[in-house]
Predict the structure.
Amino acid sequence: MLLSTTPTLEGGRIIRYNGIVTGEVILGANIFRDFFASIRDIVGGRAGSYETVLRDGRNTAFQEMMAEAQRLGANAIVGIDVDYETLGKSMLMVSVSGTAVTVEMLMGQQAPSQPTGFGGSVPPWSGQR
């Protein structure tokens, strides 16, 4: 599955627009994580536990979106948008959306054999490391 924030894919031609796809995850707060993050705010540094939760939430949202695109018969998602919203005082929503498309690679161009995005690195949700 090709993933792109742009509306087109270099080296490929969109032959079918399969529809809009989304993935959403709502993350609840954890009293212990909040406590240690507040200490981190006082002494400085990164809140690693929150970063992990956000990363996992984003990956889950991407997995949902890619599964929906596959159900529609797409081999790529273009125009991807990632949003983070707070809900109330203690919840966070991660939502991703894009357009599921079927792409035909042009002569001399080869589609990657694994999901790509994020600078061409293998994303954590692909199961490949």
Summary: Residues 48-71 form the longest helix (24 residues).
